[in-house]
Amino acid sequence: MRKWIIFITVLVELRKKKYEIIKRLRIARAVQRKYKADAIVFATIHVITFTYLGIFSKLSNGYICIHHATISELRKRFCRFLFSFYRNHVFHVVSELFLSEKLIDIYHVNKELVTILPFPIQRFQVQSNQSYEIYDFVALSASGSEQYINNIIEYEKRHNCFKKAGIKVLLKSSGITYDNGYLTVISSHLDFTEYKFFIASCKAVISLNGDDFISVSGPVIEALSNSKYVIGSPTAMLCDFQRRYAPVVRTADCIDELILLICNFNELVLVSTEISQIAFNKFLFDHSEQQMAQSIERIVQLL
Q1: Is 92 within the bounds of a domain?
Q2: Among residues 42, 133, 174, 187, which is most buried (max CB within 10 A)?
C-alpha cells in the first residue's frame, strides 16, 4: 500500500516570512525521510523559497507541487531561472488546461510531469427564506480590476445603459462604492451565504480581472457549475474557456463591448439555448468527480 503525506505550506511574501516557509520545507523533507512516503504533496509552493532551501538537489519524483499563484510568479525572469532547477524533477498539478499549456509550452516542463486536477463542481441553491436583492449580473471576484469598475461606472453615468434597459448589475470592489438603482458597486464584505445567493439567482457572472491575470477565478468556476453564463475581460482563463465552452463564456476587449454583451444578453441566450446546454454539460463533465479520480489515478501510476 502506498503511503502519502499531505503537506500544506503557507504562501506568504518572501521578504516577510521566508524563514517560516523554509522551516516548513525542511520539516517536509524530514517527514518524508522518517516515514519513507511514496509521495509528499505541497498544497502551495513559492518559487523562490522552494529553491532557496536547495531542496532541488535532493528532489525525487515523489514530490507533487500544486500550483496556484506560482505560474504568475514565473513571469519574472529570476523566478523562471530558479524554477528551471527543479521543473522536471517534481510532479506539477494544475486545475485547468490553460495552466498546463503554459507550464509545458512556455516554461518547458515535461508534459508527462503535468496533471490537470479540476476544481470540483460547486452547486448553490436559492433558499426561499433568503431576502437578498436579486441582480441580473454580478461580479464578485476579490481580484477584480478597479480600473474596469471605474470605467463601467463612468460609462453608466454618461449613457445610463443599465438604467434604460432595466438591468440590475452588482459589482464587488475593494474600495469603490456607487448606486444609481441599477448599477450597484459595493466594497463591503460578502458572507458566503450572500455570495452563493447572488451567484445562484443571477443570469450571468461578470469577470473583471486584469488582462494579465494568470490564475483560476473561483466565481467563474462557480458560475458555470450552476449553469450561469460568464462575460468578462480576455484573461488567459476566459479566452481558454471561450474556446472550450462557447457560447456560455464570452470575452470583451473593451468596456463598450462588455456593456453591449450585457445589454444584449437576452438575445444571445435565445439564439443559442441548445448549444449552450451542450457547453454547460461539457464543463460539468470536465470538472466531474470521474475526471478528478482519473487525474489522481494517473499521478499514482506515475509515482
Answers
A1: yes
A2: 42
